[in-house]
Write a structure and sequence with these properties.
84% helix, mainly alpha
């Protein structure tokens, strides 16, 4: 997830704002399909409740 965030941040600097938003959303969509966000959210909740 952090690798994808770094790649997205590095990629948006080189594009106009409207394209950079779409570029970043591609990463968000891909991670959502993989279920990465669900795992990260659950890990956070588990640690918060410990």
């Amino acid at each position: 997830m952090i690798r994808a965030a770094k790649q997205a941040l590095n990629g948006i600097d080189t594009q106009p704002v409207h394209r950079s938003y779409r570029y970043e959303q591609g990463f968000t969509y891909e991670l959502n399909l993989l279920g990465v966000a669900d795992e990260a959210r659950q890990t956070f909740l588990d640690r918060s409740n410990a």
